[in-house]
Amino acid sequence: MIQFDNVNKRYESGQDALGRVSLEIDRAEMVFLTGHSGAGKSTLLKLLTAIERPTRGSIIVGGQNLNRLRNGQIPYYRRNLGIVFQNHQLLFDRSVFDNVALPLSVSGCSKREVGRRVRAALDKVGLLHKEKQNPIVLSGGEQQRVGIARAVVNKPALLVADEPTGNLDPKLSEEIMGLFRQFNAVGTTVLIASHDLELIARMRQRVLTLQQGQLIYDGYPSREPAY
Amino acid sequence: MNQRIKSTPARTATPAPERARSTGAVTARTGFGDRFSSWQAHHREMWRESWVRFFASPMSSGMTALVIAIALALPAALQLGLTNFQKAVAGWDGQPQISVFLHKRAKESAVTSFADDLRADSLVAEVTYISPEQALAEFQESSGLGDALLGMDANPLPAVLLVRPRSSDGVSLEALAERLRESALTDSVVLDMAWVQRLANLTELGRRMSLGLAFLLALGVLLVVVNSIRLHIESRRDEILVVKLVGATDAFVRRPFLYTGLVYGLVGGLIAWLLVSIGVWLLAGPVSGLANLYGSGFRLDGPGFTYLVGLAGGAALLGLTGAWLAVARHISAIQPR
User: Fold this and answer.
1) For B176-202, what is each residue's pLDDT tens digit?
2) Which of B14, B18, B246 sits opposite A103 (nearest CB)?
3) Residue B34 CB burial class (10 angstroms; 0-12, 13-18, ≥19)
4) Are B245 and A110 an interchain contact pair (Cβ–Cβ within 8 Å)?
5) What digits encode the pLDDT tens for the residues B276-311?
6) Does the CB of B329 have a partner CB in chain A at under 8 Å?
7) Rounded to two decimals, what is the model's pTM?
8) What is the C-alpha to C-alpha distance for residues B185 and B313, in angstroms, rounded to an integer?
9) At a CB cut-off of 8 Å and minimum separation 6, what does B268 contact?
């Protein structure tokens, strides 16, 4: 699903954010990406979401080489991606329903189809009864769930989350992770960047650890307590 | 090791969800017909939404529209004034006329034969004879000085021949005037040509000035729209970032702003037409009074339907162009970081 081959990212400031990173994530895998801040987590996610382009090396996502992606093709590439942000990035000038519908209206879905899919996505995150509310009145956990509903409404093959539990307490974090696990169970590839090591350990999934732009660990920490 | 072994068969052993996902990927690709109708729907929605946004902040959008309106009303009013002026002088324009003032002692019979000779001339289209009596009567009527003239012993006015030439080009006119001067009956010849030319030149000057003014003010309108749209884009920066991240094309992001520019222009154009109409309505009374005093039936023409369509259409186009300039510059600068 995701293939990084000797990927190097140097910003214009001269800072090397990623150096020779190679990794492979299979279809329907659930993988955590961890590391201290500044280790290159967000750079890796930016490369994956075509916000940034690699300086060297190649990135292939779902059979598509991102190096060859023209600027005009980026929107179409992103439509196959679900992105969950730490600060959820909801728009407070419209209802929960309209927030979740955004990726569908962007890709030109018929109105009936939009209603059906948005309700299905909201149902999955347990917020169907709040579709008419403004997201500003929701709690932090609920807002993040709306963000997740928006990310999965397009039924993307790949779900990418950047610190999705960053501002949530452990119980809510657990709930959110449960949701990701559900989507993964139906075949969605899930990549979650997080620094919540305790939570990651409990999830018992594959973990990638970055340090100063290098991939220093790739494995299952539950089996290697030395980590 | 356990983890891996346990989780892998768990996924392969449940083919049903796998199938569910793959149908998902298929339905995620929307057909062309669907996309087209939703593209249309988005246009309709943006058109509606831009009006909603316009009236959501009536003060600021109203001001912008009013600035556009005033900038457009000025050249439109000038243009309309020129059209009306041309209509008012339509009786005189282009057609030169030569007035031949005859000697006071010229015999009437000689004058009539001279007039007949002139009518036979190939250069002359029409000759009108005004006898001293007629001239006096006309003068008394139009000047209101009749009583003053009554006190005089003799009619001081000469007989006049009004000659309308067939062609209005300078050389043949001069030749004709020269021939008229040579006649023994002629006292003096006045060629109205110079005055007509002066008028034409003045009209042309006015026309060009109004064009120049229109051009400058259209540029001003463009800048006003560019600036308003830039502010709109700034205020919706977060929204632009989010829709770009969920896969919005640039065209999708541009659309609401283009419609907003269009609405600004349209409303500005309509207000401009209204301003010019009010101006004409205010001036119509005094102008027709003035025309009556000069014995003319001239009435001021208002900005009709063509002005309405021209102003609204032109202004909408300006708004759209301004919005396009603004989005071309500012939307590509807003990229997710």
Assistant:
1) 888 888 888 888 888 766 676 777 788
2) B246
3) middle
4) no
5) 999 999 998 888 888 888 777 788 888 889 889 999
6) no
7) 0.73
8) 61
9) B64, B65, B66, B67, B68, B69, B71, B72, B221, B315, B319
Q: What is the DSSP letter of A68?
A: G
Neighbours of A219 (CB within 10 A): 12
B21 vs A204: CB contact, 8 Å cut-off?
no
In chain B, positions 120-159, which contact chain A (CB-CB < 8 Å)?
none
Where do the DSSP E strands lie in chain B?
Answer: 98-102, 124-130, 160-165, 186-191
Instruction: Give domain limits for chain A.
Output: 1-80+156-165+188-227
Give me the CATH topology for the region A1-80+156-165+188-227: Rossmann fold (3.40.50)
pLDDT of amino acid A25: 92
Q: Do A75 and B241 touch (CB under 8 A)?
A: no
Token pair, residue B198, equals 């002066």
- Contact criterion met (CB < 8 Å) for B27 and A186: no
Phi, psi of A191 (to 5 degrees): -125, 120
- What stretch of H or E contains A208? strand A206-211
- Interface contact flag, B30 A110, Cβ < 8 Å: yes
- DSSP letters spanning A139-205: -HHHHHHHHHHHHHTT--SEEEEESTTTTS-HHHHHHHHHHHHHHHHTT-EEEEE---HHHHHHHT-
Residues 7-66 of B with CB under 8 A from A: 11, 14, 17-18, 20-22, 24-25, 27-28, 30, 34-35, 37-39, 41-42
Q: List CB contacts (< 8 A) between A103 and chain B.
A: 246-247
Comparing CB atoms, the residue among A77, A106, A155 nearest residue B28 is A155
Domains of chain B: 39-91+198-330 (no CATH), 98-191 (3.30.70.3040)
Q: Taking CB atoms and an 8 Å cut-off, how many pairs form between chains A and B?
A: 103
For residue range A109-151, what is the model confidence (pLDDT) as tens digits?
888 889 999 999 999 899 999 999 999 999 888 999 999 999 9
Q: Distance of alpha carbon B274 from its chain centroid, rounded?
A: 14
User: How is residue A133 written in tokens?
Assistant: 């509310």
Dihedral sign, CA of B280, B284, B285, B291? Answer: positive
Report the half-sphere exposure of A105 (CA within 13 A, side-chain side).
20
What pLDDT was estimated at residue B10?
39
What tokens does B216 get? 């400058």
Contact residues for B63 (Cβ-Cβ < 8 A; gap 6+): none
